Amino acid sequence: MIQVNQVSFSRNKKPILRDVSLQAEPGQCLALLGPSGAGKTSLLRIIAGLETPDSGEVILSAQVATKGAFAAPPEERKTSMIFQSLALWPHMTVEQHIAFVERGDGETGKDLLTRMKLDGKEKHYPDQLSGGEKQRLAIARALASKPRRLLLDEPFSNLDEILKENLLSLFLEQVRTQNIASIIVTHNVNEAIEKADSMAIMVSGRIKKFWINKKDRIITRKEVLECFEEYRYGK
Description:
With 235 residues, this protein is α/β, with parallel strands linked by helices. It folds into 2 domains: 1-71 and 150-235, 3-Layer(aba) Sandwich (Rossmann fold); 79-146, no CATH class. 32% of the residues lie in helices and 28% in strands. The strands form 2 sheets. A 6-stranded mixed sheet has the order 7-8-9-3-10-11, sandwiched between helices. Strands 2-1-4-5-6 form a 5-stranded antiparallel sheet, with helices on one face. α2 runs parallel beside α4 and α4 packs parallel to α5 (161-177). The longest helix is centred in the C-terminal third of the chain and has 17 residues, at 161-177. 37% of the residues are buried. The model has no long low-confidence stretch (mean pLDDT 87).
């Protein structure tokens, strides 16, 4: 589980996040929507332990990860993050990416690459892969560390719709079968409505609307857009 309680964060005295609270359950995906500059990436980085908030707390699987002066280091959080840039290592082959982070228990790196349709590409470097293959490698690397949480910062934004659909379905399959709590940042309202289990809208560093277990009711695109515009323009 990912639980964020009243987190505020500033950079160079400029407020980025203001009293943010939300949660993502194991085996489910929370879609985080909002305009550019809303603070979505900063929130993911705080959850991952890459930034320290000014106040508030982050609780991961009932354990305090961030509170006050205490912040557990990223490597102890069992949390993987896939950046928009993917952040692949240009000097490492596909199999080296997996071996570098792989934990010994459970599925092997070889099996993971097969499931991600990267078998036969083990000796390839990132610049020898297609866009879709790079995305699958980023997902495979994230899963190889056997995380309990996955954070995705618009990783599919530059892909065509068919490839994006395939990769998103592949990602969600892993989230649900491996009981991983996940948050995905997206600008795609339809994608959030159709694929995610819960949704939140962030504007100017604040969570303005949060739907928990949205499958309990039907959320329409019109409802989301009206909510988004209301808070964005102060209507």
